[in-house]
Amino acid sequence: MLRSLGGYQAQYHYLTLLVVSEFNEWKVLAVAPGVTIHGQRQFSEAKAKDHAFALAKEYVHKFKQESLPELPEVVWQAAAPEHWLVYHA
């Protein structure tokens, strides 16, 4: 059975950032073709969004050393039900 989780998504250059609520914690994920990055769980929506943004900046500018401009912020939008699914057998 697939169950969707509610949350938010944003774009940081080529990375799609997802933060979703599951019970009393927020999960953080960044995805792009060929890469999936799991962030640390957070206990508030604001901290999850901040963590996802910091994770994206670290990956793009320090780990990959891309010559892309450092964005001052991202625009968060509600994630659609199909953006994050949990499978339970």
Would you spell out the secondary-structure blueprint of this structure?
Layout: E1 2-4, E2 7-12, E3 15-22, E4 25-32, E5 35-38, H1 45-63, E6 77-78, E7 85-87
Antiparallel strand pairs: 1-7, 2-3, 2-6, 3-4, 4-5
Describe the structure.
The chain has 89 residues and is of the alpha+beta class. The protein has one domain. The chain is built from one helix and seven strands. It starts with a strand and ends with a strand.
Provide keyphrases for this structure.
89 residues, globular, alpha+beta, 7 strands, single chain, two-stranded antiparallel ribbon, five-stranded antiparallel β-sheet, 1 helix
Strand arrangement within the widest β-sheet reads 5-4-3-2-6
**What is the percent of helical residues?**
10-25%
Give the quaternary arrangement of the chains.
single chain
Order of helices and strands: EEEEEHEE
| Net shape | globular
Mean pLDDT: 94
**Strand count, sense and closure of the main sheet?**
5 strands, antiparallel
Short structural description:
With 89 residues, the protein is α+β, with helices and mostly antiparallel strands. It has a 5-stranded antiparallel beta sheet with strand order 5-4-3-2-6, covered by helices on one side. The chain has a two-stranded antiparallel ribbon with strand order 1-7.
